[in-house]
Structure formats: structure tokens, C-alpha cells
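Whiteboard transcription, Tuesday session. T.W. wrote the C-alpha cells on the left side:
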């Protein structure tokens, strides 16, 4: 994926009108341990850090409000990959760790090496779904060009942060 800045890797999210909504960048190199999710103006919404664990991956998301990180020592969410060796499916458990809400709240489900995914809440309802985008004539546009459908009541920045983590799991960022 190409970055909006010269030295970095990232991607850009456009809405249905073609306006930039979100962008991600690591400002370093592919596979870096830290990625920034920003709004269209470049304001950081989440910093996503990969923690070192021997077998299963773990990513932490730190929420930003204004120019400062909320709860400097405590992540806003944590994503853990489950059983990567036993299946070609990628399954992750998402724990929200904000002050009011602690516990397993979402699952991310996809296929190894593929960008398509579903984010499912604790009740089994689909919160967001990303599929490979197709042109109006039905031609796939590329593995890294996705169509993201998000439920209207979902936190869009959190959904994008989780999609970003999924991209990191599959080495797409």
C-alpha cells in the first residue's frame, strides 16, 4: 500500500463521494510495530501498537482526543489472534478497555492472506463487513481495494482501527 507521505506505508479510506475519510500510516516501513489511524485532516484518532508475544499476535489501540492520548498507560482496545496454526481462518477477539466497558466485545473473522473480513459484536450481529470492491461491470479492483459496509450506530473510527489491525495481521500494512 502506498502512503500519502513520501517515506512510509499506509492507505487511504474514501467515502462513496470520493472524499478522504481516514488514512493510516506508519511513517517507517512495512511491518512496523506502530501505525497511526488519522482523520481526513491528519488528526490522530488511534495509535495501534503490536506487542511481542511468542505465538499469538496481540495489538493494542490507544485512542486520541485532541492532541493527547487518552489513558497513556492503558489501551482503549486490545486484539488477540486465536489459534493461527490450526486453521486457515483468521479469528481475533477484541476487548474494549475503556473506563466504562471492559470485556470481550467483538470478533474479527476472515481468511488467511485475504483482506475480506467481518466484525461481529458479542450478540453475533455483523457490525462491519469488508469485501473486495468490484467495478460497475463486476471486475475485481484488486486485493487491497475494499468496500466497507458499517452499521449506522457503530463507532466508525473504532471499526477502521480494527480493519487496520486485520491488515497488520495479514501483512497488508
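and on the right, the sequence the group agreed on:
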Amino acid at each position: 500500500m502506498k502512503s500519502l507521505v513520501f517515506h512510509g506505508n499506509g492507505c487511504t479510506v474514501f467515502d462513496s463521494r470520493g472524499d478522504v475519510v481516514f488514512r493510516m500510516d506508519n511513517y517507517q516501513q512495512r511491518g512496523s510495530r506502530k501505525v497511526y489511524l488519522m482523520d481526513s485532516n491528519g488528526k490522530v484518532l488511534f495509535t495501534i501498537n503490536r506487542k511481542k508475544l511468542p505465538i499469538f499476535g496481540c495489538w493494542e489501540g490507544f485512542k486520541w482526543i485532541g492532541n493527547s492520548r487518552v489513558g497513556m498507560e492503558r489501551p482503549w482496545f486490545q486484539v488477540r489472534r486465536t489459534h493461527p496454526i490450526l486453521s486457515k481462518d483468521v479469528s481475533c477477539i477484541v476487548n474494549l478497555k475503556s473506563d466504562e466497558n471492559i470485556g470481550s466485545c467483538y470478533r474479527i473473522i476472515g481468511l488467511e492472506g485475504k483482506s475480506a473480513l467481518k466484525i461481529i459484536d458479542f450478540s453475533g450481529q455483523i457490525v462491519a463487513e469488508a469485501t473486495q470492491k468490484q467495478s460497475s461491470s463486476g471486475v475485481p479492483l484488486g486485493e487491497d481495494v475494499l468496500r466497507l459496509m458499517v452499521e449506522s450506530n457503530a463507532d466508525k473510527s473504532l471499526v477502521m482501527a480494527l480493519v487496520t489491525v486485520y491488515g497488520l495481521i495479514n501483512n497488508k500494512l
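Someone added at the bottom: Residues 51-169 form one domain.
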